Amino acid sequence: MKLVILLAVFGLSLAQHNPHFKHGRTSIVHLFEWRWADIAAECERFLGPKGFGGVQISPPSENIVLDHPWRAWYQRYQPVSYKLCSRSGSENDLKDMISRCNKVGVNVYADVIINHMSGSGGGEGTHSACGSWFSATKEDFPSVPYSYLDFNDNKCHTSNGEIQNYNDKYQVRNCRLVGLLDLALEKEYVRGKVVNYLNSLIAIGVAGFRVDTSKHMWPGDLQVIYGRLNNLNTNWFSGGSKPFIYSEVIDLGGEAVSSNEYFHLGRVTEFKYSAKLGYVFRKWDNEKLSYTKNWGEGWGFMPSGNAVVFVDNHDNQRGHGAGGTSILTFWDSRLYKMAAGYMLAHPYGVTRVMSSYRWNRNFVNGKDQNDWMGPPSYGDGSTKPVTINSDQTCGNDWVCEHRWRQITNMVIFRNVVNGQPLSNWWDNGNNQVAFGRGNRGFIVFNNDNGELNVTLNTGMPGGTYCDVISGQKEGSRCTGKQIQVGGDGRAHFRISNSDSDPFVAIHADSKL
Ligand code: ZXY
Ligand code: CA
Question: What percent of the chain is predicted at pLDDT more than 90?
């Protein structure tokens, strides 16, 4: 009996669902492929002041360097060692960035690849981010070190050693994902190396991990590994804090592995949310915004307390991967801002905002021939810095969606309404909807072809509020639209579908 209780308590204490956000912050931004030096500066000059809770960084471990295709983004998902050295910067750059972000209240979550090392076709030599020698051919990674004994080959029974059938969970977990050398995570030795790698990141101050390809690892192996992780660094986090863990599990249904196998390990990426949100705002498959009255679990998504949600991610924004062409991205900026606004206003899940770079899209028969392209770079392959223009947008082909006024202001909105329930839902039965968050915020969308012209109960105290989509409050005035809320909480909204952004949002801190 005592043992059962002990196990139950231990199991609960393993639950690593808390992002440890500081001071009521609520959102993560993925600064995809950014250099550590640029992230440090962005924490200080923008993310801290604007109330972002954390940043997801690209994989910090040393990776293979690909010539074909040239420096592809996904080379960073092929580790060759656990040295903290990549095109984003050196170990010192990483340490400096993490402490500077922590200092301004912005957590850092590292993207970690522990399912595999490089692709089997990766050859041998020192074509690695920081010169470590490795041999994919011989399954030899002396900088860890891993040898051929540390990979899963003997456990996979497909003809070519690769995953062929996603309806067979043994293949999904024990075979090679598109040829990537699959680590034997049930081996004590391998677990030890992975634990040391993750603990080295905890030691320098990360708040948690986005665990790549969790679908392809056994939950039992992950539980043992996570159970051996140190608590977060007490320079920045209260004693006894477990790292936040969010498992990347691409589960749109119809496969042997489902996201609920990972709930006890931390949060999980909800890809259905991203895919469905695209359908709703594009009005595909007869979806309507009014149907989102029960958005969340009512749509078959996982429980809110388990979910990390996003409009798009670094993979599905490239037109392949989960969700296909429904996914909204910065390329569809008007709909994208609305969808991001909806996500950030809605209480479901922990929200992650994407921050991308532009590449030369080139569609041939519906497929982007350049979906592999890495970040903006110089001729020698080094990543271009993120420059900031005088209007606060980013240069050098960095998109910086997180700096778009509509998105930044909705990140702030989410902080202001944190903890408030969804309230005062209204819809027109079509694509005009509105909802509040208690008495702290209210948002109205018009994704119909006609005009929205309606008086609604906002649940907010009477007064004059600045719309934070068309502008914001600056001193004692609004730079965009103003909304008058009467003493009865009612307000009149008029949104033309030809407005540059056909939605309006007000919150307690945007009151004049
Ligand atoms: N790649 C191209 C060429 C090689 C990389 C490709 O056509 N891959 C096959 C289809 C995508 O499969 C991959 C999945 O996850 C990965 C992959 C990968 C994770 C990695 C490294 C990878 O290739 O190379 O760490 C994947 C797994 C699933 C699933 C869908 C996709 O349902 O269980 C890619 C790379 C994609 O397209 C990629 C890379 C990193 C990610 C990710 C996707 O974190 O989510
Ligand atoms: Ca595996």
Answer: 95
